[in-house]
Amino acid sequence: MTIQQIISPEVTEPAPGMWSNCLKVGDTIYIAGLTARDKQLNAIGNGEYEQARVIFQRIEYLVRAAGGSMADIVKINIYVTDIAHREQVWKARREFFEGAFPVATLVEVSALAPGILVEIEATAMLGQGGRP
């Protein structure tokens, strides 16, 4: 089985030699922890809801570039700097998933990159999105 890097024109890739945003191994898609930053690496979005929404949209772009859909996502890990604002992340999540949601982990961390309040990583199984 080969590892294929998946790139979407809507998602800025890190500098060469850093990491990959998305890799496809067989029918499994691994998406790195994404944040809400512009091309100059400045934080975008005011608050957890807006940042999470930007991140979920980027995850969708990468999953689609790999030939899947958000329904194929089976696992998400969410990192927040203030767990008291988790409802804002969940509000954004509900805009991208329906039916049986992916399994999820939510963890409060002491810090992320400057201005970043949320980071989300995801795993998807292509063609497996037929859940109720």
From TrEMBL:
Q: What is this protein called?
A: RidA family protein
- One short Pfam name that applies is Ribonuc_L-PSP
Family annotation (SUPFAM superfamilies): YjgF-like (SSF55298)
The organism sits in which domain of life? Answer: Bacteria
**What InterPro entries does this protein map onto?**
RutC-like_sf, YjgF/YER057c/UK114
